[in-house]
Hints:
- By secondary structure, the protein is of the alpha+beta class.
- The protein has four domains: 2-166, Immunoglobulin-like; 174-269, Zincin-like, CATH 3.30.2010; 317-455 and 549-566, Neutral Protease, domain 2 (Orthogonal Bundle), CATH 1.10.390.10; 462-539, Pdz3 Domain.
- Helix content is 29%, strand content 28%.
- Helix 5 (294-311) runs antiparallel to helix 6, helix 5 crosses helix 9 (367-383) and helix 6 crosses helix 9 (367-383).
- It is globular and about 80 Å long.
- 45% of the residues are buried.
Amino acid sequence: MAHYLFSYTHPHRHFVDIDMTIEVRGEEQLYFQLPAWRPGRYELGNFSRNVQKWTAYNEKGEQLPHQKITKDKWQVDTLGAKIITIAYNYYANKLDAGSSYLDEKQLYVNPVNCCMYVVGRIEEECNVELDVPADYEIACGLEKTGKHSMRAFCFDELAESPFIASNSLQYDVYEVEGIPFNLWFQGPCTPPFEKLKKDFVAFTQEQIDCFGGFPCKDFHFLFQITPYKSYHGVEHTNSTVILLGSENDVFEERYDDLLGISSHELYHTWNIKSIRPAEMLPYNYTQENYSRLGFVTEGVTTYMGDLMLYRSRVFNWQQFSKTQNENLKRHLENEGRHNLSVSDSSFDTWLDGYELGIPNRKTSIYTEGALCMFMIDALIISHSEGKHTLHDVMKVLYTDYALKGKGYTEDDFQSLCVKYGGLEVSQVFTQHIYGTEDYLPSLKAILPKIALELNDLENPSLTASLFGFLSAKINGKCIIKKIMNDSVADKAGMAVEDEILSVDDNAIEMTLNDYLSRDVNEVTFHLKSRFENKYITLQAGVHYPLQQLHKAAATNQLKVFRKVWGK
């Protein structure tokens, strides 16, 4: 059994002190491994860079010889000790949904960041003790063994159980199918719990109905509400951490965002936490866990997370179509869709993570995956004449794979989709999931099968629409971030990372849209590149066109299909 003690002395310094104690079983050396990544984010995290001090001692308090033998593994010579304690500190000063943070108001820990395990003994039970102020409560999915203590049956469970310890947590709970779903809020806010529970009950029930059961005996939503704009969520076995802000609009203007990310993260309880790719069962915490199945783990979840809100009537049509229009916008503004498929982009998250990376290289497993799943869902409904949907595919993965402790393969998923949706589904896999063919012809041909259609939409960004480039305000500077190949901006020599200093001699103080109009013919931009300043005059054209989703006029049969899809 491993025992972990979390404590701290100067919370404003953000260092958490961690003691791990474990029995020796006759080993001459013990190897303590810190994970190199965390489930829920498919890139290396290299958490060991946050460790400042590290030592080991026996039951008598005597130091033992130890050395670091890889970037995140330590060797300890036991020298006949019966019990070994390692003591180290961890710099917890990153507040997002997957990191750890300590200050005077809370201790927030993702154990996978900072808890070590003994190599070869990862299946041992773990006890967790927190040395925190007496009035602190703990929000966590682990079993409580005391006010400030918890138990995990193995390191996997510990790694998957973030916790918040604070005296300012706000709490409520709702039940669906007899299962308690706990709502914890940390941060400056006043949660409208009755409104939240009404909406959360609706989409939770819809998701459980689709799968026919829930994988856990309880669930915990851990919300970190920030005074600044933020948006991030990470799924865990029976919990999720959701970072959202600012506190002034999180339950008003950003309430749809809160619902969207909460539905997404809850769906992950089945898809990735229970239904796992074969190559991620079990997790290897020490290295990359390569998979091309991001179009399932994140693509299905992105699509279903929004659809569950619509099917449960938490979202109306306008709210749901907005989410799909945003997916279409992200897809059409990313030239990387011509170069790397969504399956290969999944593999390459381990290369450059979730960053944009070099221009036009890869696609998003969230956006492109969701659009592909939308197409496959429509094909399944049409082919089966409304008897089946993509939910049937996911339910089989849950009942025949997850509940039996099996991982699924790419062939397993594709075969199930083709079984329910026919051979036309194979074309989506060939052309779009594994290929880089244009999505639009397929979307426009497939969505009408469930009485939906895409219509043309002008890009609201005038620089995108007229000249073919997109920019962002970064540290007060207007920086070009995307350029459409062969656009007028591209042909004139504009480059990614150029700074725009002025538009027609107007210094940039507002958004670029404020200096342009839809009927402009010619504009001169003053640019600053790495080695020179230059003026470029552009003639307006048509670029980065967008699409938006609509309900289509349809026969009674197609309207039935649309109802099957959207309930």
